[in-house]
Design a protein that fits this description.
With 138 residues, the chain is mainly α. The protein is built from 6 helices and 3 strands, in the order H-E-E-E-H-H-H-H-H. Helix 3 runs antiparallel to helix 4, helix 3 packs antiparallel against helix 6 and helix 5 packs antiparallel against helix 6.
Length: 138
């Protein structure tokens, strides 16, 4: 059984709606989909359904989340969305369990030059995702 829809709802809820913060390296984003990564998209007009298709194809499936437990899948999926698919796949292989994965994510965030600006929000995200990962959806 795929947990994708449950994971998508959590992650898109964290990502939120439209943003165009000039300090954000992702630039213009909506539902967490950035203009930097998807230069051909009209980000402001992006629908939730389009975002869901992108998340499924480019993040969930690319990281093999359907082969994981709920806890691991949600943590890896959220990392792919927020820190990149390559980093998520690499850390997933290295991490012993979901706690170890989240600790490695925190270390990556702390090393990021934008940590002073976005660090508290990133840490809140980690805790929120991990808390949600503790309850497997029905």
């Amino acid at each position: 059984m795929s947990f994708f829809l449950s994971a998508f709802q959590i992650v898109v809820g964290i990502e939120g709606g439209y943003s165009n913060d000039p300090r954000d390296p992702g630039g213009e984003t909506k539902f967490g989909i950035s203009k930097r990564a998807y230069s051909d998209l009209d980000i402001a007009s992006l629908t939730l359904e389009q975002a869901q298709q992108i998340y499924l194809r480019d993040y969930w499936e690319v990281c093999g989340c359907d082969t994981m437990t709920w806890e691991r899948a949600l943590c890896v999926f959220d990392m792919a969305v927020n820190q990149g698919q390559g980093a998520a796949r690499a850390l997933n292989v290295q991490a012993h369990d979901a706690i170890d994965l989240m600790a490695e994510r925190a270390i990556r965030y702390a090393k990021n030059e934008n940590f002073p600006t976005y660090g508290k929000g990133w840490m809140n995200r980690l805790f929120r995702v991990f808390k949600n990962a503790q309850v497997t959806p029905q």
